[in-house]
Write a structure and sequence with these properties.
CATH superfamily of the largest domain: Hexapeptide repeat proteins
Oligomer: single chain
Order of helices and strands: HHHEEEEEEEEEEEEEE
Strand order of the largest sheet: 2-5-8-11-13-14
Protein name: Serine acetyltransferase
Largest sheet: 6 strands, mixed
CATH architecture of the largest domain: 3 Solenoid
Family: Belongs to the transferase hexapeptide repeat family.
Keywords: Acyltransferase, Transferase
Structural class: alpha/beta
Helix content: 25-40%
Distance between the termini: 18 Å
Organism: Drancourtella massiliensis
CATH class of the largest domain: Mainly Beta
CATH topology of the largest domain: UDP N-Acetylglucosamine Acyltransferase, domain 1
InterPro entries: Hexapep, LbH_SAT, Trimer_LpxA-like_sf
């Protein structure tokens, strides 16, 4: 969670690294995903510090505007630093879910609650989530996990360090995510 300016700088630096950007700022044309992530992090900062009412409202508006433009519904304080969104397209994440650092998300992903209130996923660090994945319910996904395309995850895989796929999800390999970040 971003609690101060140093945290904000660290999150922005890790997000930039995850996206593979080597230049200082997003280009005026393009880099829409990077712009969205910057807006998301600044919105989180102003919400968490409860400072500057005007900037909090501005970043709330921009967060919603860019989210609608790109098809993202990613609330504040859900995803850890080092977020990598690979493509435009529908990504929906429940506001109560928790996702660790260095998460790599593709399009068509839905991370949501089950029937019971607050029965939402807890996803560890360095998790690769393929296109079309659905993760729902009070489950835990461990660190260094790869989730294959179109997988439906409705049970926990807390041990991590594996690759899961299928409907319903099952372990297909005990090899960890191929690009473990520190």
């Amino acid at each position: 969670m971003i609690k101060n300016k140093e945290d904000l700088k660290q999150y922005l630096k890790m997000d930039k690294s995850a996206l593979g950007k080597e230049y200082k700022r997003p280009h005026f044309f393009g880099d829409d995903i990077w712009k969205f992530e910057i807006i998301l992090r600044k919105h989180e900062y102003y919400v968490n510090t409860n400072s500057n009412f005007f900037l909090r409202k501005l970043y709330s508006f921009l967060h919603k505007k860019y989210g609608l433009k790109l098809g993202f519904s990613i609330p504040c304080n859900v995803v850890g630093a080092g977020l990598r969104i690979n493509h435009f397209g529908l990504i929906v994440i429940n506001e109560n879910a928790k996702i660790g650092e260095w998460c790599d998300i593709h399009q068509g992903v839905n991370i949501g609650q089950n029937i019971e209130k607050n029965s939402v996923p807890m996803i560890g660090d360095n998790v690769w989530i393929g296109p079309g994945v659905k993760i729902f319910g009070k489950i835990e996904i461990g660190n260094n996990t790869m989730i294959g395309a179109n997988t439906v995850v409705c049970k926990s895989f807390p041990e991590g360090n594996c690759r899961i796929a299928g409907n319903p999800a099952r372990i297909i390999s005990n090899e960890p995510n191929y690009y473990v970040r520190k």
